[in-house]
Amino acid sequence: MTHVVKVEVRGRSTASPRTLYSVAKDSAGYPRWSQIGSFEHLCSGSGERFGVGSRRIFRTWPLKLVEEVVELIPDRCVSYILHSGLPFRDYRSSIKFAPVLGGGASIHWQSSFYPTIPGTAFLCRAFMHGVLSKMVPALAAEAQRLESHAGIAAVHV
Asked: Which fold has domain 5-156?
């Protein structure tokens, strides 16, 4: 019997939860700030392009990941599931944001799944931990860059 694999990575950003949420929700932007190679929009979600129900393809050679956004809580959480592309079943990830005292926000990216290949749980966990360990600081940096750029634009207006 295969047991669920859980992976969690936490980080912190000087950016607000609102900006972090906006960056995480914008599927088309992932190739700009993360190790994702390319993005393809499959279908829009309920009421908006990247809303709940939207589907996307992220490609990073040799992977082609088909994902669906399943939950959005404004300024707090973006959740998605994986339909195909990795040897996992019942994959779900949530990226959660919370304000921290003194400004900025915490980031908590958690994933859970069942490996489809027996005996690979350790390797799958290590792989996903490596991926998320790069995604969290990259998300934080992109949100900080956007806020910094917006601040500069506001000063020069």
From this structure: Alpha-D-Glucose-1,6-Bisphosphate; Chain A, domain 4 (3.30.530)
* pLDDT confidence tier of residue 84, bands split at 50, 70 and 90: very high
Question: Is the confidence at residue 151, as pLDDT, over 80?
Answer: no
| Rounded (10°) angle between helices 17-25 and 121-156 | 120
End-to-end CA distance of the chain: 61
Give the Cα separation of 11 and 118 in Å (integer).
31
Which residue shows structure tokens 């992977």?
63
Q: pLDDT tens digits for 27-51?
A: 999 999 999 999 999 999 988 899 9
Mean pLDDT, the chain, whole residue set? 92
Sequence-ordered list of residues with C-beta below 8 angstroms from that of 44, at least 6 positions apart, any chain: 50, 51, 53, 54
